[in-house]
Fold:
Amino acid sequence: MEGDCLSCMKYLMFLFNFFIFLGGACLLGLGIWVIVDPTGFREIVAANPLLFTGAYLMLAMGAMLFLLGFLGCCGAIRENKCLLLFFFMFILLIFLAELSAAILAFIFRENLTREFFTKELKKHYQRNNDTDVFSSTWNSVMITFACCGVNGPEDFEAIPHLPYSALEKAIPEACCQRELQSREGMFVNKEACLSGTERFQNRQGCYTVILNSFETYVYLAGALAIGVLAIELFAMIFAMCLFRGIQ
Structure:
């Protein structure tokens, strides 16, 4: 009976990790294709910071799942205690990292307020200075989401870091409307925007825009995270049971 249970667990673990292996291979292949594809899709991804970051995250996740599934499959089917132990340690590290991230996100959630971002923007933002990481990141966010500041263009009225000419009002170029929401996108009317014509400016604050964009995915992401943690926990239990059952 004990042998039958061990054999069943072995094949269930193999099947479980085989699907992880296939999923990782698909993600890895898709990530590589997006990054190296010569047909022009690469330029679209490179022009959008979010898509660019997402492509590399997909590549990293695919490689990790590919390796994880391979270790689990080989360890289960060959009944190799060394591979099973390595699989368990790998899963444990990922589990602890995800758990730590969740705890830190809960602890520092109060920092993700409108007031916090407004204070940081007014303190560190240097308008069109793209050599500054903070300013460059904010400019990319405002261009990508077609928004301006945290609350709106009024956030830039009290930013004294760089003087602006008589033509330019307080808002930076990143707040001007573009035909395509990327750094390479042509301005609708840059001069009118910088001179204060509101219809050529993005007037909505980024905090509201981004919150509305991701609000529908928050609960889904939370449920998915709990599901992933539960799967990882069961994978560790199966690996240890199989490890101890192998003579």
Q: What stands out?
A: The chain is about 70% helix and 0% strand. Residues 111-163+178-233 form one domain.
